[in-house]
Design brief:
Blueprint (H helix, E strand, L loop, with lengths): L24 E5 L3 H6 L5 H22 L3 E8 L7 H16 L1 H8 L1 E6 L7 H12 L7 E9 L1 H15 L6 H5 L12 E4 L18 E4 L9 H12 L10
Parallel strand pairs: 1-2, 1-5, 2-4, 3-4, 5-6
Length: about 250
């Protein structure tokens, strides 16, 4: 029997997830699409397309288990440095998903939000973004934040400037928080990074102060709902003290 020419991800045993302690907000750095494609002798675009499909799977699972907010790092401000063909592929996938946002909301009650510096987008893509941002979700929706053209340092500079423009005198943490892209949302309880990298790459730098971090060698396109459950189970075993003793 012929064997596959790539290494399949190891099977993940069912994780013991406490349904009463599901994190309200999970953030994921979707990393490893290019390496996934390279391992299969496929173009990087194939990895990004499979990664986009996997986002739908993971978002659906988050909705099913009761996660309220899901934020994914889709495209950083530094990613514009990548080859033009790769950038065009990612932006094309972004456009496709925005075009499906109304159906996602209607069928799955998943509300899409776009976080990042949106001033760079024009024409049809900006129109789609604005339409998605204006949609109203039903009660119980999963809010899925797509961080696109996002940089954590740039977000903090933007927030500080906006807060200073609205208030004379010393700024408070609340002043800054009110100007973040995630204003009005809880900070992420759990941040997950697949692909074997152990860094945040500028993702949610303010919001992650007390987030629990979970790293795995699994590449993003191979990251299954079972892997997510394993991350949640690990999170549930931790004691979150927020700087205190208990």
């Amino acid at each position: 029997m012929l064997r596959p020419f790539w290494k399949r991800p190891a099977a993940v045993p069912p994780a013991a997830v406490d349904k009463d302690k599901i994190p309200a907000h999970i953030a994921i750095i979707m990393d490893g699409n290019g390496r996934w494609a390279a391992a299969r002798n496929l173009p990087r675009s194939a990895g990004h397309r499979e990664g986009a499909r996997n986002f739908r799977r993971i978002a659906g699972h988050c909705k099913d288990i009761g996660v309220k907010y899901l934020t994914v790092y889709a495209f950083s401000t530094e990613n514009w440095k990548r080859p033009r063909e790769e950038v065009d592929t990612i932006m094309g996938l972004f456009r496709e998903y925005l075009q499906e946002a109304a159906e996602e909301l209607k069928t799955h009650n998943i509300q899409i939000r776009v976080l990042g510096d949106l001033t760079i987008f024009h024409g049809e893509l900006r129109r789609l973004i604005d339409e998605v941002q204006a949609m109203n979700h039903r009660e119980g929706a999963l809010i899925a934040n797509l961080a696109v053209n996002y940089g954590g340092r740039a977000e903090l500079v933007r927030a500080a400037n906006a807060a200073a423009a609205q208030k004379q005198g010393p700024l408070t943490e609340r002043d800054i928080e009110a100007q973040l892209y995630t204003a009005g949302q809880p900070e992420p309880d759990l941040i997950i990074r697949p692909s074997g990298e152990y860094r945040l790459s500028g993702f949610l730098l303010w919001q992650c102060a007390y987030s629990e971090l979970y790293f795995t060698d699994v590449l993003w396109p191979d990251f299954t709902p079972e892997h997510l459950d394993a991350a949640i189970a690990a999170y549930q075993q931790r004691s979150r003290r927020y700087g205190g003793l208990s």
